[in-house]
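Q: I'm teaching a short session on how sequence maps to structure, and I want students to see two examples side by side rather than one. Could you give me a first protein with its sequence written out and its structure tokens following it? Keep the formatting plain so it prints cleanly on a handout.
A: Of course. Example one:
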Amino acid sequence: MQNVLDTFAAEVLRKRKAIGYTQRQLADKLHMSIRTIQDLEHGISNPKAETILLIARELDISIDAILFPNIVRGHISKTAMDFFAGKSEAEVQKYVSLCQQADKLKTDK
């Protein structure tokens, strides 16, 4: 089983590549050295909470998803969480019901 630092390193690497950033580009955007990014991606560096937050924001991923991807992946995306933030349970249920109806229409064709 991976420890949290190894998981964080793997997720930073995976997400950075998915976005299409080089290590240099991510380092520049975060005002960090490329060596810092390399150390983070290899699990050598033990990042501060502030660093984790900055990276998560730049890579558009929630902190829980970057630290515990196996728990979060496949459940609900950050975009969906942001969309539903502040909505009542009834509003969320209406939207879920609408999506289920749309899925049913697609499969009925």
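Q: Perfect. Now a second example for contrast.
A: Example two:
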Amino acid sequence: MLELKKDFTIIIVTHSMQQAARASDYTGFFYLGDLIEYDKTSNIFQNAKLQSTNDYVTGHFG
């Protein structure tokens, strides 16, 4: 997958935070069909702007 993303846009829908953090450059967090937050993956996992996003990626919610 890491080789493919050099040449293609790949959209992955997953509940695996480890896979999302490892394989993506950008991450979107959806909740109840709404896009809550979208940013560089490093920002989402290390410095989310919204508490709900942080709660989800740290396993405190969902």
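Q: What should students look for in example two?
A: Point them to this: The beta strands are 26-31, 34-40. Also worth mentioning: The radius of gyration is 12 Å.
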